[in-house]
Automatic annotation (TrEMBL):
InterPro entries for the chain: C-type_lectin-like, C-type_lectin-like/link_sf, C-type_lectin_domain, CTDL_fold, EGF, EGF-like_Ca-bd_dom, EGF-type_Asp/Asn_hydroxyl_site, EGF_Ca-bd_CS
Topology with respect to the bilayer: Single-pass type I membrane protein
Originating organism: Geotrypetes seraphini (Gaboon caecilian)
Main location: membrane
A Pfam family reported for this protein in Swiss-Prot or TrEMBL: EGF
EGF-like domain sequence ranges: 332-368, 369-407
Protein name according to UniProt: Complement component C1q receptor
């Protein structure tokens, strides 16, 4: 009881104090989620909007035909008792702001509702009396016209927002409504709304309103104060402190307003009392007056959702489920049977998920190949494939045990050289023992002739350099070492002494030369596999001396010619200085014409 009184006091103190605008409120009507009020007072558009907002509302909208009908009913309700009042205009919350342009192809012609947010879609309902003024620079506002017995009645027209009109509509939105109270005997119910309206004619009363019951006969159940509260989600009702049979009297019984009952009123003449009852399929509410459809879903017979009907109930299942054979229990739907995914589908209770094979990534329900080569998983070359990748190695390498690394191939194990072989990274090199040269095929070895043989051949003016058409082997009178027997090829172990090369002349002075004194051996060349071979021998030291003599002689001859030219130039300059300068005359620029043949041509002679 204490809690109830505290709630009642709190609700009364929370009611807004009626303002001047509320005192000028002429009529009101409420729908399921909003109340509309009519104000008969000359105001500009901005002044009317401020008045509505001061009570927690805004200028009324008419975004649909149903909402426009609420405003029309409000006008009819007010003017029914006041015929022949002439023409009236009432502001509604529709305006064309500055810098917004008239648009003929739009239903609202570029106008917008004052309560509309930017993200809301524009309503397609309109009721223009005539086309609005075409403008982009002025503020234009819309009013609803009341012209009784005219086809233009309730139509819209625009005008200057600063010009006052006869009145305006306000709109107040609420979460829900309570039904009006029905008295069981003579009396009156006054409703006080949160926006300052006091009315005795409301059919729907907004949430948070207070009702005051006054009975005609003193002593009867009256003088009650009730608040419209929310009982459950979406359900609103009065907090009845008693049975709800207000102003009930044995004098009237069920004769007055059906005893205040919504459906059936049952009298007991023996006790001179009566009570309310409901029809089949309905049950009496907690106020013992109203009736509601019987809730067949209590207790809930369904595994998930239950929808109540007058004749029974119906079970509902959420998305991803379907009713079983008993129509009560919901079972999971296996969406994967319809193959909604590109590769893999995993069913789950009420849903499913798409997955991809290894090497792919999911993009919605589709799978896209992953380019693994972007992460450089291979030591050398990488080729991306659908869902995977392949590593490869360059020539001279082979794949390691992990299929991604590359290890060097020891080509010398296959004995590709005629004599010595050294393995390198990705390749190999062939070498020859001292006293031999690598042939042009970079594999075979050619013996080097002795120094005496070279000298004797030079005396006979026979060059040891290879000719263009005769092989080196034929010129030297030697045969290449055959490579038919793989045992002839010897691999050069790592870290051992390198074979004789042209870059290390001292290496040719060691022992082991086949029958040739080491001090008389020319340079021995070695070339790596694939880079060519030594195709000719150098000339002896005598040939080098001859070349030096020819070079010095040529330089001396050039210097001698330069000295002679310089002397001649100096002699000419000295001679020019000794000759005297002859005076110049005007005749120096002319020449004499000989007599005879030239003179005959002159007509003046």
């Amino acid at each position: 009881m204490v809690i109830f009184l505290w709630q009642l006091v709190y609700q009364i103190l929370s009611l807004p104090v009626p303002t001047v605008a509320a005192a000028k409120m002429e009529e009101a009507v409420c729908s399921q989620r909003a109340c509309y009020t009519l104000h008969l007072d000359y105001r500009s558009f901005i002044e009317a909007q401020e008045e509505c907002r001061s009570n927690g509302g805004d200028l009324a909208t008419a975004k649909s035909l149903d909402e426009a009908s609420e405003l029309r009913n409000l006008l009819l309700k007010f003017f029914t008792s006041k015929p022949d009042q002439g023409a009236f205009k009432f502001w509604i919350g529709l305006e064309l702001k500055k810098m917004r342009c008239y648009q003929r192809d739009r239903a609202l012609r570029g106008f917008s509702w004052v309560s509309t947010r930017e993200q809301d879609e524009e309503s397609d309902f309109s009721d223009w009396m005539q086309e609005p003024q075409i403008t982009c620079t002025t503020h234009r506002c819309v009013a609803m016209n009341y012209l009784m017995s005219s086809p233009k009645n309730f139509k819209w027209s625009d005008g200057k927002c600063s010009t006052p009109v006869n009145g305006y509509f306000c709109k107040f939105s609420f979460q829900g409504m309570c039904h009006k109270l029905v008295l069981a005997g003579p009396g009156i119910v006054t409703y006080s709304t949160p926006f300052g309206l006091e009315s005795v004619t409301l059919d729907l009363v907004p949430f948070g309103s207070m009702a005051t019951v006054s009975c005609e006969t003193p002593g009867e159940l009256g003088g009650q104060f009730l608040i419209c509260n929310m009982k459950e989600a979406g359900i609103f009702d009065w907090n009845h402190p008693g049975s709800g049979l207000y102003c009930a009297s044995p004098k009237y019984g069920c004769l007055y307003n059906n005893g205040g009952c919504e459906q059936e009123c049952i009298e007991d003449h023996s006790t001179k009392t009566f009570h309310c009852d409901c029809k089949e399929g309905y049950e009496l509410g907690s106020n013992l007056v109203s009736c509601a459809p019987k809730d067949h879903c209590k207790p809930n017979p369904c595994s998930h959702g239950c929808t109540n009907h007058q004749e029974g109930f119906e079970c509902k299942c959420p998305l991803g489920y379907m009713l079983g054979e008993d129509r009560l229990v919901c079972r999971d739907v296996n969406e994967c049977l319809e193959r909604p995914c590109e590769q893999l589908c995993t069913n789950s209770p009420g849903s499913f998920s798409c997955n991809c094979f290894r090497g792919f990534q999911a993009v919605g329900r589709e799978c896209q190949d992953i380019d693994e080569c972007e992460k450089k998983p291979c030591a050398q070359s990488c080729l991306n494939t659908a869902g995977s990748f392949v590593c490869s190695c360059r020539e001279g390498y082979k794949k390691g045990s992990d299929a991604s690394s590359c290890v060097d191939v020891d080509e010398c194990e296959a004995k590709p050289c005629a004599d010595l072989c050294r393995n390198t990274k990705g390749s190999y090199e062939c070498f020859c023992e001292q006293g031999f040269l690598l042939a042009s095929n970079s594999i075979s070895c050619v013996p080097i002739p002795s120094f005496q043989t070279v000298a004797s051949q030079e005396e006979k003016s026979v060059t040891l350099e290879p000719s263009e058409h005769v092989p080196l082997e034929a010129q030297a009178g030697a045969k290449s070492v055959p490579n038919n027997d793989p045992e002839n090829t010897r691999s050069l172990p790592p870290g051992s002494m390198s074979p004789v090369s042209s870059s290390d002349p001292s290496a040719s002075t060691g022992a082991g030369t086949r029958g040739v004194p080491s001090t008389l051996l020319p340079d021995v060349g070695s070339r790596s596999h694939g880079t060519g071979s030594v195709d000719h021998m150098k000339a002896g030291t005598d040939k080098g001396h001859h070349m030096l003599f020819y070079s010095v002689s040529s330089v001396a001859a050039v210097l001698l010619v330069l000295a002679f030219a310089l002397g001649l130039l100096m002699w000419k300059r000295r001679r020019a200085k000794k000759e005297p300068n002859q005076p110049r005359s005007a005749a120096d620029n002319y020449c004499w014409v000989p007599d005879g043949e030239k003179a005959a041509d002159n007509e003046y002679r």
